[in-house]
Here is the input.
Amino acid sequence: MSENADGVDETASESAGGAANPVEPPLAAPGPQPGASPAAPTVPQPGASPAAPTAPQPGASPAAPTAPQPGVPPEIAAQMAWQAHQQRARAAALAKASAPPTWVVRIRPAEAAPVRVATLVAALVAGLATALLLGDGLGPGLPLAVLPAVVAAYFAARAAGRGPRPWTLLWAVGCLALLVVPALRDSAWPATLAILAAVLLGALALHGGRTWPGVLLSPLGLFESAVTGTAWAWAGLRSRSGGISKDRWLPVLKATAVAAGLLVLFGTLFASADAAFADLLGDLMPDVSVGEGPFRTVLFALGAVLALAAARTAAAPLRWDRIEVTPGKPRSRVEWALPLIVLNLLFAGFNAVQLAVLFGGYDKVLSSTGLTYSEYARQGFWQLLWATLLTLVVIALALRWAPRAGAADRRFVRVVLGVLCAMTLVVVASALRRMDLYVDAYGLTRLRLSVAAMELWLGLVIVLIMAAGVFGARRLPRAVAGSAAAAVLAFGLLSPDGMVAENNVARYKTDGKIDLAYFQSLSADAVPALDGLPEPQRSCALRGINDEMSKAGDVPWYAMSLGEYRARKILRERPVTASYEECSRLGAFGSRIEY
Here is the structure.
């Protein structure tokens, strides 16, 4: 099996495209015309089956039409040439229809190296860690359960001769850092974002994507490897089933069984002899009951399959970077630039008004419009957020159809789009200022914080696009993916629920306004900030969080985040004292609509 310069298996391509296909037989040549020379070629007799032409192999150039023989009338020679052309066209169409799509052949990975025992053992450990550590919830157990899958991928890559590259190590470190967020924060929404971003970085580390198709489609390769990875591991087990040496593996199994027996025996004796050691041992060991058997079995299978998928991808990744995106048809300067220049003028007019409002003060604008601060802020923020998103779409389409005849066209495109990006940054600043006004009026919430963070990230993307226009766009896809992962990591480490609680507590101390009902939906990350409120507001603000943790009961260490640990410690030292009736009078259990 050989590979061409692009790494595509030529043998497989030839076998796929060169298979015998039924070809329509050629049309019989017409009989001799009146007055034709007897030197004309013989016409096939009735009933004779003409031989079907052989279908051309992929990549083979069609044979040139046969030159007319001397003495053949021009009419018959032209008909014979036309029939030969039709036969070649039919054969080429059939061969093209029977061949697989080009992009499928290009991204298909090379055959993976045989699976090694170390990879299989690491996948088994990953399944056991997933079943034992993730059955009670996410926490420090999540990165611990993922580490064996990373080891399995490392062993598989080494077996395939693939060494780590700087970008691979960067993506892998970022993936593990994102998985630490659920161990630190109790809130589910930043933890979910961190897990999704970790999947993206893990897929980039395994596939090594550099282009936009590589960055966007890399996570799909993990789903494909979840199927092929299991078959790959099964084939490896079958190939090794006849070659396992008892002299090599039997002593290892015996030693493992003896070690487990000694741990159980002496661990039981020490636990019964000392209550403190028994408590420590009970906290360290996962508590698995018989009734959880099916659930733990599913977790074991999920962890092992995901580890095998990572290993299979590391051994033979899909080459998404080989998908070529055809550029759009270049337009003339006038056709391309006129809509963008008009848009730039519109942006300039809007930004001029924003600067006038900023330096002239909001009071004059509000008095002339009749709006309040909150109404003015809420009226414009969402529209400006959508304007930022649509501007990115406009930039992408403009780059697709931009004129590219020479260096002058490239400079012209950079100037027009650079002005649009600069104008968009002013729109981003205006949107963030409006959100700041809205928070001053009504306080900070999860939704307001998240959309403000998204607006900040969109502004960073625009800055990256401007940098790509100056230094080149080769690294832009990976820079955007890295910025998204860094934003999600920073968002989780800053503790959004803690920031919301701190802002509202500071607002209460300033103007006495507080919404106790909203705090009932926050996570344990908000407890340290809410603990600073005076009674009975403190107890009423913490009532919902306290009830949720009491309902959950004791949580093992591997499923308890740092935020929940701190919250439990605070509530043990200073319990909730206000009654439900008192909190109801303060409005702690009312409904709230979050804008």
User: Anything to note?
Assistant: The chain is about 70% helix and 0% strand. Residues 178 and 489 are 6 Å apart (CA to CA). The first helix runs from residue 10 to 17. Confidence is low (pLDDT under 50) at residues 1-65.
